[in-house]
Amino acid sequence: MEEDLEVGGRGAVRGAAELPRLVTEVREAYRNGRTRPAAWRVQQLNGIIRMISERESEIVQTLYTDLGKPSHESYVTEVSLVRSACKLAIKELKKWMAPLKVSGSITTFPSWGAIVAEPLGVALVISAWNFPFLLSVEPLVGAISAGCAMVLKPSEVAPATAALLSKLVPLYLDSSVIRVVEGGVDETTVLLDQQWDKIFYTGSPRVGRIVMAAASKHLTPVTLELGGKCPVYIDRTADLKVGLRRIALGKWGCNNGQACIAPDYLLIDEIIASEVVDTLIDVIETFYGKDPKTSQDLSRIVNTKHYSRLAGFLDDPKISSKIVHGGARDDNKLYISPTLVCDVPMDSTLMSEEIFGPILPIIKVKGVQEAIDIISDRPKPLVAYVFTKNKEVEKRIVASISSGGMVVNDTIVHFLNPGLPFGGVGESGMSSYHGKFSFDAFSHKKAVLYRNNLGDVPARFPPFTTMKQNFRRAIMDGHYLSAVISLTGLKK
Ligand code: NAD
């Protein structure tokens, strides 16, 4: 197998005109069946692990170049997660690939069934800039595990990581069936115009619509990992000492709020509102110091476009007068300090658009019902968080809020459990991945029914006499005694 691989043979492709040919090449290589054996899949997964082991410092440095991401944060939230996804897939692959036996049914007796996972085929993976390594390579882990061929289009907004991936992937993986294409809208548009067997997209709901429209042309299945506003409800019984540290870490400690699962706004029981704000300010100062600009633990805003967008939120007169903490800015360094805004009007842009940055709006509510109403009035979030010690409140939130995921008494950690599907619902996306769900996202579950040549009863075939009709009706309706009686001719 090893000598068969064309590792390092093909580099990155630049230029939209080359892309249709590239996709054709990948499809031809896929048709040879090279991606199907478990051995190939394990070899590629080991290739990713080896890439990480040998290039960790380069990867982490590149993430710093793109996002000013602290190196240990890059390791914990990107590199290590890809490595553990590979390890899990290698460990479980045989089990995931094994046909799932299904018992036969009376209507097809004698028979037995199996659900056979087959690779969907040639997949397009389009990723976002905020976790540019993780969100590019983790879907590849799913595609490889499932036995697909793939083309990865990383985000042009994290150009150093995109360039690094297009350099490293051909060095460590089978470049006849795993290719990286650098580029932005033009290249993605050409790629979307090609025929795919699966499109896995991470990014905004706006572009998600473009992806889905393109996929519909060829009836291509899609996974859409989208974003939106992730709410946090803090109930009056919540343990604030524990909870607010976890909220602060989820907001500012994970790419400085530029994460799809970052807390987007807080809904706080009005009784504890001022205590929450005071404690949260203390937590921010403990984590990032009196002047967070000097902290080594905060990523920067990705680029001027996003910086101006976030600054625009704060310049809104409806918002600027309500800043209770932070609000400091440095245009040259693309820096905005962790910022709390209290009593934010519901019709402000801050409450209608995904924030994706270090600003955290706070809204007082009368209790859990008002929180549920506010959340349910908005598009379904990727994740909703609730902090409470009250089991009734917990139950009500879990039962009444529809969201991609939910975490009780913490933030973002659901992401770390590969036993949980990660994905959105409604406006926050469709389908999911992580762990076995990644394998499933790139697999077709083929239903196979096995029969031998025994077991044909005459009633199956025409001419359908009354007796035969009675028998067939009884069998289809599950009335087996009537079926036997109908054969005696006693039933008219
Ligand atoms: P984006 O939608 O702007 O870009 C994502 C990808 O789409 C990029 O690769 C880009 O090149 C491509 N693209 C952009 N415009 C396009 C167009 N007109 N036609 C075709 N392709 C186009 O998203 P982003 O700014 O990179 O990421 C931010 C968004 O992604 C946020 O909404 C965030 O919540 C969401 N997100 C979701 C997840 C998740 O796992 N659910 C993870 C990270 C980010």
TrEMBL record:
It comes from the Eukaryota. GO terms for biological process: aldehyde metabolic process. Keywords: NAD, Oxidoreductase. The active site is at E225, C260. One of its GO terms (cellular component) is cytoplasm. GO terms for molecular function: aldehyde dehydrogenase (NAD+) activity. It catalyses: an aldehyde + NAD(+) + H2O = a carboxylate + NADH + 2 H(+). Residues 14-448 form the Aldehyde dehydrogenase domain. Belongs to the aldehyde dehydrogenase family. PANTHER family: ALDEHYDE DEHYDROGENASE, ALDEHYDE DEHYDROGENASE TYPE III, ISOFORM Q. This is Aldehyde dehydrogenase. It comes from Physcomitrium patens.
